Amino acid sequence: MEKQEKHLIATLLVLLLIPVLVACEDSNKDSRIAFQVSPYYTVEEFDLLVDTGTLHGCCTDGENIYLLVTSDENEIECATLYQANLADNTTTKLEKYCPIKVEENSSASFWGPFLGGDGKLWLWEGYTIPYYDLPANFDESSDIRSKYLISRDEFYYLRQLDPGTGRELKLVDFSSIVTEMKGTESPLGLTVDNQGIIYIGTNKNITALDDAGKVLFTLKAEIDESADETLALLPDGTAIALVDTIKQGREVRTIDPNVKDWGKTTYPVSSSVWSLTGGSEGYQFFCQRSGTLYGRLEGELLDSRLLNWENTGLGADNSVICFSLLDGGRIAVLTRTISERGTSQDARLRLQMLIPSNQQPSDGKIRLVYGTIGDDGWARRRVNQFNESSD
Fold first, then answer.
1. How far is CA 295 from CA 72, 164, 292, 369, 370, in A?
2. Taking Cα atoms as reference points, which of 255, 227, 225 lies closest to residue 240?
3. Distance CA 365, CA 358 (A)
4. Class level of CATH domain 36-360
5. Fewest Cβ atoms nearer than 10 Å: which of 84, 104, 149, 319?
């Protein structure tokens, strides 16, 4: 009888341990697939051969970084779409890309490129054509043309492009919808999910459109206008949105187009998160706050702190515009350094690879280490500036 009782107790203990062992196994599995951050990095430069100009946007598929740059040629603004290959360190102009042709006196705006859930590139192009009632003796050198503006036409298009050539595959005209939005709302996000549904996010709503520009449904979604890139995709192509709620604060919500409503999955985030990026390397999505990159693992309730950009050796004056987490703990980063004149038209663009290292750089320089409770961006920047200039 005593042996039977001991056998029964042992069996019960094994059964109780099974969930724990499974949980440990799942936890170990997550840690293996998730991107591992290194304590130190060395920086290698890519040969990013692009024209000097204004960077309008960029995105990455993990193998390439795509970027759109406009430059002035003979006082005419020209837009060029580039593909920077991360494997062979080459930069290619996608020659099949050509901006939409409009009247000469029009002004252009761009958003993107960005990758949709269909694996294609998407690019927003907007054009404004002004009309003036100029007096007969109008002199451009002494008078202001905008005083005589009487009307203007606005056109907005979303173009699907071939990632290999830049050739247009599809054109969506949503001029009327965007024009109505601009009266009371500010566009803050744009994405295309794995079903080809287009989402435009503003500070008040998210509007879903089909590929003909027809409105499918609208979701109320308030967000502070200081936020940027409030729409993105999960790795499976599901659309997600950064929104503010009265009860839960700021959070990331999934969108379910099949029920024309929010999805069942939500992710609480810090109220200081201002930007969303689609996930990769085991992470559902990435977000940024205070110059620090965070990632959310599936099943986790909190973001994982990955790294502060200023601590990677990129330089205190470089702004990270686009990044890609790669195998082996490497990170490809596109940075922009504003010129001394403070203009973005001639900012320096650099494509760099962060190589993980277990050893702190040992070049004989004295370095300060930023360590305190909380995070003061100004103090951190001053420490990094000292470390860069210290001999």
1. 38, 29, 10, 24, 22
2. 255
3. 18
4. mainly beta
5. 104
Residues paired with residue 33 on neighbouring β-strands, in sequence order: none
Q: Are strands 187-192 and 168-173 parallel, antiparallel or unpaired?
A: unpaired
Structure tokens at 370: 């930023």
Bridge partners (DSSP) listed for residue 241: 231, 253
What is the residue-level pLDDT of the chain in tens, covering all 391 positions?
554 554 544 454 444 444 444 444 444 444 334 567 777 888 899 988 887 788 999 999 999 999 999 887 666 678 999 999 999 999 999 999 999 887 777 888 899 999 999 999 999 999 988 999 999 899 988 899 889 999 988 899 999 999 999 999 999 998 888 877 766 677 889 999 999 999 999 888 999 999 889 999 999 988 888 888 899 999 999 999 999 987 778 999 999 999 999 999 999 998 888 889 999 888 999 998 888 899 999 888 889 988 888 778 776 677 888 999 888 889 999 988 876 665 656 678 889 999 988 776 555 455 555 555 455 555 655 665 565 555 5
Positive/negative CA dihedral, 102, 103, 104, 105: negative
Two structure tokens written together for 380:
């951190």
Sheet holding 292-297, edge to edge: 275-278, 283-289, 292-297, 304-308
Among 282, 327, 281, 235, CA closest to 30: 282
Q: Are 189 and 161 in contact (CB under 8 A)?
A: no
Q: Where are the beta strands (DSSP E) in 162-203?
A: 168-173, 187-192, 198-202
